[in-house]
What we know:
Radius of gyration: 15 Å
Shape: elongated
Number of strands: 0
Amino acid sequence: MADYANINEAGRRIAHFVEEVYNKKRLHSAIGCMPPTEFESVGHTREKVTS
């Protein structure tokens, strides 16, 4: 568990984690169960992928 100096620091660190770690690694069903960075690196756009 992390210790934060105050609520502002907690908010900044949590936002950083969500944007820089979680969202880049989380698999998204709308884009073929790939993480967004992988999806974009193979030349796709953010449009919904259909099977």
